[in-house]
């Protein structure tokens, strides 16, 4: 986890996170693992941070529509979780 000094005597935990949600109910485990590893490495490189600071998550079987259809779709969020310690 990334711990940075915020003020003297205080710290904050900064963790970039990418969440992937999809309407597909049973993607192959190997495909999910490969996707998450690729996303983790890409985000770490983009942010010039060690990959140990990056978190990825995958949520299958989420009811979604896009363009008025229920065809398979995915949604990704990228944000930073910041916790004061």
Automatic annotation (TrEMBL):
UniProt-listed Gene3D superfamilies: Macrophage Migration Inhibitory Factor (3.30.429.10)
Record carries keyword Nucleotidyltransferase: no
Pfam families the record matches: MIF
Superkingdom of source: Bacteria
Gene Ontology MF terms in the entry: cytokine activity; dopachrome isomerase activity; phenylpyruvate tautomerase activity
Record keyword Isomerase present: yes
EC nos: 5.3.2.1, 5.3.3.12
Location, primary (coarse class): secreted
Keywords: Cytokine, Isomerase, Secreted
Segments crossing the lipid bilayer: none
Cellular component aspect of the GO annotation: extracellular space
Reaction(s) catalysed by this chain's protein: L-dopachrome = 5,6-dihydroxyindole-2-carboxylate; 3-phenylpyruvate = enol-phenylpyruvate
Compartment(s) where it occurs, according to its Swiss-Prot or TrEMBL record: Secreted
PANTHER family: D-DOPACHROME DECARBOXYLASE, MACROPHAGE MIGRATION INHIBITORY FACTOR
Protein name: L-dopachrome isomerase
Source lineage: Bacteria, Bacillati, Cyanobacteriota, Cyanophyceae, Oscillatoriophycideae
